[in-house]
Amino acid sequence: MSVTLSLPRILRVGRGAADELGEVITGLGLSRPLLVTDAFLAGTGAAERLAETLRGAGAHPRIFSGTVPDPTTDSLAPGIQALHEHTADSVIGFGGGSPMDTAKALALLGVQGGHMRDYKAPRVNLGPALPVIAVPTTAGSGSEATQFTIVTDSASDEKMLCSGPAFLPLAAVVDVELTMSMPPRLTADTGVDALTHAVEAYVSRKANPFADSLALTAITTIGRHLRRAYADGGDGPAREAMMLAATQAGIAFSNSSVALVHGMSRPIGAHFHVAHGLSNAMLFPAVTAFSVPAAPARYADCARALGAATAEDDDARAADRLVQALRDLCTDLEVPTPAAHGIDKDAWTRLTPLMAEQALASGSPANNPRVPTAEEIESLYARIYA
Ligand SMILES: NC(=O)c1ccc[n+]([C@@H]2O[C@H](COP(=O)([O-])OP(=O)(O)OC[C@H]3O[C@@H](n4cnc5c(N)ncnc54)[C@H](O)[C@@H]3O)[C@@H](O)[C@H]2O)c1
Ligand SMILES: [Fe+2]
Rounded CA gap, 40 and 317, in Å? Predict the structure, then answer.
């Protein structure tokens, strides 16, 4: 059986790469990018500095800073208007996963029109869409190298997974300097997101040797560097390692898939506004413990890559050690339970059946080694609450 692998046409990686964005854009024959970012990155002047490098290369950017964390369909409308007013020929996503995902959605809607829910999974979106150039400022989502965008339907609060090559950036500019300002909580949450991408890509039913190699490398790198970056945001080598691992994990899951952790995490984010990486972290140990019996050898490989087990441990023991290592990581990164995070128990219980339904509808649980029933998902939600 064959597998189709898709990557950005250009990956420009390294310190100072963002200063070369103008060259990347004009080298692709583009000149009128809409620079999509959020209020924070506009406020620090980082977006304007990027616009300046674009102007220096002869391009004519317009900044749109209306992205919201975990983009919603309502938040896209002013972006579409800005895209048309500027007669943009390309869209730059500058920020964490939220601005990059917004840029991807605008690039497609700007050409095809309609509503984002028309494009949600299981539909595979081939295009047409404007070219997207992604410039991440977190070491986490990997969106700079994935064929996905995730947008919440404002009408239903459903966090919709939309997929297909139409959302794959044409170029990604990956510059660790942009992540140095991340505070510890954001460093931890985005780092766990990247680790989840790598582990889920590796254990997925859609795993393949190409994605496997990147996933295992990313797991090893994150195991060595996430705690360091969390403890000291000024640790340049740790930041650099995390940045590379996040992009590698993005390529891995884009060419394999995520699985049950992500399927269950999106509804938590949508209904309770928990940061994406944090809701992954709340679920990661329990969902892994649930899933291990269906693929002990694959989880054992992850454990060894993470440094949680050795070659001497048999698969069952190594897989158990992975679950414990994930619990320890969550403790060290001060991950709260939903209860400790302040989520109301009644609301959690009341929304659990809907969250389970939405998790299943996203398709991600079907890629899990152990495919859960709705009841099993509900009981996992109950188990992790406190
Ligand atoms: N498309 C994909 O493949 C994919 C994959 C994973 C996650 N996602 C999505 O990405 C979103 C999460 O992205 P994220 O976790 O990167 O965060 P984000 O983009 O939502 O940003 C979170 C916060 O961090 C701030 N921030 C960003 N960079 C910073 C920096 N360098 N220094 C200080 N603050 C900074 C932002 O301004 C914002 O306030 C979710 O909506 C998630 O669903 C998408
Ligand atoms: Fe994620």
Answer: 45
Alpha-carbon distance of 260 to 16, in angstroms, equals 36
Query: Can you state the angle between helices 276-291 and 374-385, rounded to 10 degrees?
Result: 120
Domain extent for 254: 184-384
The pTM (predicted TM-score) of the whole model is 0.97
> In degrees, to the nearest 5, what angle opens at C-alpha 58 toward C-alphas 52 and 64?
50
Mutate which of 101, 125, 268, 271 for ligand 1 pocket (most atoms within 8 A of beta carbon) = 101
If asked whether residues 213 and 258 sit together in one domain, one would say: yes
The domain total for the chain is: 2
The reply to whether 149 and 259 lie within a common domain is: no
CATH number of the domain that residue 293 is part of: 1.20.1090.10
Dump pLDDT digits (tens) for 112-160: 999 999 999 999 999 999 999 999 999 999 999 999 999 999 998 888 9
Q: Which residues of 7-34 are buried (b: 16+ CB within 10 A; e: fewer)?
A: bbeebbeeeebbbbbbbbbeebebbbbb
Four-point Cα dihedral 108, 99, 180, 194, nearest 10: -70
Measured in whole angstroms, the distance separating CA 347 from the mean position of its chain's CA atoms is 26
Of 237, 357, 234, 338, nearest in space to 282 by CA: 338
DSSP state of 364: G
CB-based pocket (< 6 A), ligand 1: 38, 40-41, 69-70, 95-99, 101, 137-138, 140-143, 146, 148-150, 178-179, 181-182, 186, 190, 193, 276-277
